Amino acid sequence: MSRPRSILIVEDEDIIRTTLREFLSGEGYQVSTAGTVGEALSLARGRDFDVAVCDVQLPDGDGIQMVRRLLQYHADVAVLVITAYATVENAVEAFKAGAFDYLVKPVIFEDLLAKLERVFRFRELHQENQLLRREVARRSEFEQIVGSSQSLARVQETIRKVAATNSNVLLVGETGTGKELFARAMHAAGPRGQGKFLVANCGTRPVELLETQLFGTQVRQTADGRSESPGIFRSAGEGTVFLDEIALLPMGTQSELLRAIEYQEIMPVGGSETVRVTARIIASTTRDLSREVGEGRFQEDLFYRLDGVKVRIPPLRERLDDIPELVDHFITKHSRAMGKRVTGATSETVRLLMSAHWKGNVRQLDNAIERAVMMCDDERIDPDDLPPDLLGISQPLPDTDDLRSALRHYERLHIARVLRQWPDKREAAKRLKLGLSSLYRKIEELGLDL
């Protein structure tokens, strides 16, 4: 059940104040009243109101100035100003102060109801517009995350839940898995989605350059006047700061980052006073931070601050079902960039790509498709267009024309690759569509060294 809409009436004439309160209460509104600026501001400090109906002439101050104060307390309150004179000057002053509309004394109830309906309709439309803008931004970023595998769907669902909060987040995953892309999606889907998303590489050297980039410098006097470098944390405002490869952050800088997380303040380089910051932090790493802590390269306090909300980004070998979609996506991207008419890949090419060992994950696949589009002379990519060392294609074939020998050679390469990807024999046998005993027999027959 939604709460009643609340209205604050600020009017020094008792008869008008009482009449408006009784009428609006009868219409189902929750009404509070004040006869002075002081009373009104005291009420506004203690609770939220949907609408404030305010006289411009009050015994202890200017009603227009009071409107400005009300909006400082609650930016969402809609103000209807009551004036005894329907002059253009009064209306302009009221609108400059932030009023939504104005009423003329004596207040006509039908006019008041019509204006209140406009207020709440406008508010509903504004909220719908904000939701739609966030949804468009959310979809735009999530559309960049290509794939429909179960492992990817689980990660996206986790990110949607985490994105709705203001918590700092740690993304872990191998190189090339797209951690920054997921971070951008998280930012866009969250409450700070309209703010800035700024990136810092924690491996930047020298340390002084990294700290200046992160925390900025103090204001200093130059020949041209005051000058400063605000740094990423201050420039981001209430947006998001993405710290790429947090494990590479120097120990001294880790202490400064811990201060930013715990106390929401930083010390600019060369400064003597701290500066408040409000940006959300999303960090990423390819390393095991708990091991880094154990080996003395990462502060334990900072580790626990970041490790509370951790999201693992799966490697490409755990989302092989996404490869066909990713291939189509990258072909479209690179074909458009190169002005070529490559429309897809042959089924043989896709099968080969799905059987590759993607050590560099999605980034490596992207680079392979870029090269393939470049080399392709037809509308569809075939295996000859792929990088020759991608799938072990460059390995020498047996010096024989005998088909059995060639098939045995390929079988050995293929089983060895699957076993490298899936050391668990049961899982490898499942991937190869072999029985477990058959796999052990193949290993022995082919002389595979595991």
Short overview:
It contains 18 helices and 18 strands.
Explained architecture:
With 450 residues, the protein is α/β, with parallel strands linked by helices. It folds into 4 domains: 6-126, Rossmann fold, CATH 3.40.50; 144-312, Rossmann fold (3-Layer(aba) Sandwich), CATH 3.40.50; 316-385, Orthogonal Bundle (Helicase, Ruva Protein, domain 3); 403-446. It has helices at 14-26, 37-46, 63-73, 88-97, 109-143, 150-163, 179-189, 207-215, 231-236, 251-263, 289-294, 300-307, 323-338, 347-354, 361-375, 403-421, 425-432, 436-446, and strands at residues 6-10, 30-34, 51-55, 57-58, 61-62, 78-83, 101-104, 169-172, 197-201, 220-222, 225-227, 240-244, 265-266, 275-276, 280-285, 310-312, 344-345, 380-381. Strands 2-1-3-6-7 form a 5-stranded parallel β-sheet, with helices on both faces. Helix 4 links the parallel strand 6 (78-83) and strand 7. The chain is elongated. Mean pLDDT is 85; it is low at 393-397.
How many domain modules? 4
Distance linking N and C termini: 65 Å
The level 1 CATH classification of the largest domain is Alpha Beta
The CATH topology label of the largest domain is Rossmann fold
C-alpha Rg (nearest Å): 32 Å
Q: Layout of helices and strands, plus pairs?
A:
Elements: E1 6-10, H1 14-26, E2 30-34, H2 37-46, E3 51-55, E4 57-58, E5 61-62, H3 63-73, E6 78-83, H4 88-97, E7 101-104, H5 109-143, H6 150-163, E8 169-172, H7 179-189, E9 197-201, H8 207-215, E10 220-222, E11 225-227, H9 231-236, E12 240-244, H10 251-263, E13 265-266, E14 275-276, E15 280-285, H11 289-294, H12 300-307, E16 310-312, H13 323-338, E17 344-345, H14 347-354, H15 361-375, E18 380-381, H16 403-421, H17 425-432, H18 436-446
Parallel strand pairs: 1-2, 1-3, 3-6, 6-7, 8-15, 8-16, 9-12, 12-15, 17-18
Antiparallel strand pairs: 4-5, 10-11, 13-14
Helix pairs in contact: 2-3, 5-7, 6-7, 13-15, 16-17, 17-18
